[in-house]
Design brief:
This protein has 308 residues and is of the alpha/beta class. It has two domains: 141 residues, Rossmann fold; 139 residues, LD-carboxypeptidase A C-terminal domain-like (Glucose Oxidase, domain 1, 3-Layer(bba) Sandwich), CATH 3.50.30. The protein is 30% helix and 21% strand. The strands form two sheets. The chain has an eight-stranded mixed sheet with strand order 6-14-13-8-9-10-11-7. Strand 10, helix 9 and strand 11 form a beta-alpha-beta unit. Helix 1 packs across helix 5 and helix 8 packs parallel to helix 9. The chain is globular and about 50 Å long. 53% of the residues are buried.
Length: 308
């Protein structure tokens, strides 16, 4: 396993945080609503110059998006980077980013969905903790629950020494401990066979997704299993993967496929924590050690994710 990830500095009121758009194009109204929420948390918000740029479905040219992200990491005045939205596009940036340079300036980076590419690369290639959590022009703009927003603020400001999240179901028994990696299942699968696939060895793998038919969830889990990824992890935690249009027969089929494709691995598996699409989307630190207790249906983080 890679060395222990560096934790970024805790945020404090008055810090300048950047908003970048490394993936799909965003709407001005959604961005402004989300930025207002971020500012209400006590931060000075610096929106990247080309956040509203468009190149087809993307938020501007690949090199421009990569350049803005790289510049935010290099800017000593920026203490954290919040992404605007996911959708599609982060995978195109991976060869354009200098992760060795990013490693020299670890700072809070928050996103999920398509940002799964970046979250895991920051842990393994830049050696820093990253944060799977709400995005500015999406979750922030739509409105986070009070619990989710409070959790994020306390986590990023170093006020949360540890926390736990409860799952709906225990799928396979056991306990395990390891650094957390993962993210959106369909995006994670897209990293397999590339230099940007995470190191699965001894890790706790978090998986979530949205808008996928049950057979597609099964196909992606089959790919992870046949690629050897699932046999290498210490444990698996699923978010609340919900069927399209809330179809209950599809929900049952998804749960069945999850149980089948994680059977016989000899590791604990829990299902249905409130993180990721279609949930309260509690922020999870990647690269930080957590413990799974399947009998208690819990994932427990026992250390702060930032340094004061």
């Amino acid at each position: 396993m890679n060395r222990k990830a560096n934790k970024p500095a805790a945020l404090k009121s008055g810090d300048t945080v950047a908003v970048v758009a490394p993936a799909a194009a965003i709407e001005r109204e959604h961005l402004e609503r989300g930025v207002n929420v971020l500012a209400s948390m006590g931060f000075r918000v610096k929106v990247s110059e080309r956040a509203l740029a468009r190149s087809g479905i993307l938020a501007g040219d690949d090199r421009e998006r990569a350049g803005e992200l790289q510049a935010c990491f290099a800017d000593p005045g920026v203490k954290a980077i919040f992404t605007a939205r996911g959708g599609y596009g982060c995978g195109r940036l991976m060869p354009l980013l200098d992760f060795k340079a990013i490693a020299r300036t670890p700072k809070v980076f928050v996103g999920f969905s398509d940002e799964t590419f970046l979250l895991n690369a920051l842990v393994d290639l830049a050696g820093m903790v990253s944060f799977h959590g709400p995005m500015v022009a999406m979750d922030f703009a739509r409105g986070l629950t009070e619990r989710s927003l409070d959790h994020m603020q306390r986590l990023l400001k170093g006020e949360l020494g540890g926390f736990e999240l409860e799952a709906r179901e225990s799928v396979h028994p056991g306990t395990a401990q390891g650094e957390v990696i993962g993210g959106c299942l369909s995006v994670l699968v897209a990293t397999i066979g590339t230099p940007y696939a995470p190191n699965f060895d001894g890790r706790i793998l978090f998986l979530e997704d949205t808008g996928e038919k049950a057979y597609r969830i099964d196909r992606m889990l089959v790919q992870l299993r046949q690629a050897g990824a699932l046999s290498r992890v210490a444990g698996i935690v699923f978010g609340a993967i919900r069927a399209i249009d809330g179809d209950e027969s599809e929900n049952r089929l998804i749960a069945r496929f999850v149980a089948e494709q994680t059977a016989g691995l000899g590791c604990p598996v829990i299902y249905g924590i409130e993180a990721g699409h279609g949930t309260e989307n509690f922020t999870l630190p990647f690269g930080v050690v957590a413990r799974i207790d399947s009998a208690a249906r819990r994932i427990v983080f026992t250390e702060p994710a930032v340094v004061s």
